[in-house]
Amino acid sequence: MWITNGTVADVAIIWAQTDEGIRGFAVDTKTAGFQANLIKHKLSLRASLTAELVFTNLKVSDADRLPGATSLRAPLMCLAEARYGIIFGTVGAARDSLETALAYAATREQFDGPIARHQMTQAKFAAMATRLNTAMLLALHIGKIKDVGQVQPQQISMGKYNNAMGALEIAREARSILGGAGITTEYSVFRHMANLETVLTYEGTHEIHSLVIGEALTGIAAYR
C-alpha cells in the first residue's frame, strides 16, 4: 500500500523474506503476477501518483536479486535516506507557510489597520518563526554530521520527528491567520497542511520515531 509512482514505474524494488533473511529484488513491473492499482480520492499529496501493489504468485529469479542487499540493514538504509530528505523538505513547507501568513497579515485590514499589528497575531508569528529556525538549525546540524559519515539512525529519526510535526503546526497556525482565505486554493498553506499530515505518517510514523529516540536514550526497545 501507498507506493509512490507504483503505477508508472518500469522497475519495482521489492523487499522479501527468504530462507536467507531479508533480501531485495529489482522486478520488472510487467512480470506476470505483478499488479499496481492507483489509489484515488486522496485529500493529501494529490499531485503524487500513489499505488497499492498486489502480488499474485509473483515469481522472481536469482538474477533479480540485489547483490549488495544481504540483510535488513539495506532497506533501513533506504528509509534513512528518505527520512533525511524529509527533514529538509518540511522546512521548505514551513517557511512558505510562514511567509504567506506574514504577507497576508500585512495587507489584510481589520479595525482600521493590518491584522499584523495585533498582539495575538505577532505572538503566533514569534512562535512560528522560532519553530522554523529550530527546524532549520537541526536540519543543518544533521546534514553536517551526515557529510562526515557519522550520522546515526536515531539522529535522523529525531530530525523527522521534530521537523514534520513542527512544520505541520506552523502550517496550521498560518491557516488560522489567513482565516477563511486559508482554506482556498489562492494560498498554499492549506495544501502544505494537508500534505504535512501525510508526511507525519509516511517513512515511519511520528509515534515510531518517538520510540526510536526513546530506545536510544534508555537502551530499551519499547516496540519489541
UniProtKB/TrEMBL annotation:
User: Single Gene Ontology BP term?
Assistant: fatty-acyl-CoA biosynthetic process
Pfam families hit by this protein: Acyl-CoA_dh_1
List the SUPFAM superfamilies hit by this protein, alphabetically. Answer: Acyl-CoA dehydrogenase C-terminal domain-like (SSF47203), Acyl-CoA dehydrogenase NM domain-like (SSF56645)
**Entry annotated with the keyword Flavoprotein:** yes
Key words of the record? FAD, Flavoprotein, Mitochondrion, Oxidoreductase, Transit peptide
* GO MF annotation terms: fatty-acyl-CoA binding; flavin adenine dinucleotide binding; glutaryl-CoA dehydrogenase activity
Give the primary localization class.
mitochondrion
Domain named Acyl-CoA dehydrogenase/oxidase C-terminal: which ranges?
Answer: 76-217
A single Gene Ontology CC annotation of this entry is: mitochondrial matrix
InterPro entries in the record, alphabetically? Acyl-CoA_Oxase/DH_mid-dom_sf, AcylCo_DH-like_C, AcylCo_DH/oxidase_C, AcylCoA_DH/oxidase_NM_dom_sf, Glutaryl-CoA_DH_mitochondrial
Compartments it resides in: Mitochondrion matrix
Family named by the database record:
Belongs to the acyl-CoA dehydrogenase family.
Name of this chain's protein: Unannotated protein
Source organism of the structure: freshwater metagenome
Lineage per the UniProt record:
unclassified sequences, metagenomes, ecological metagenomes
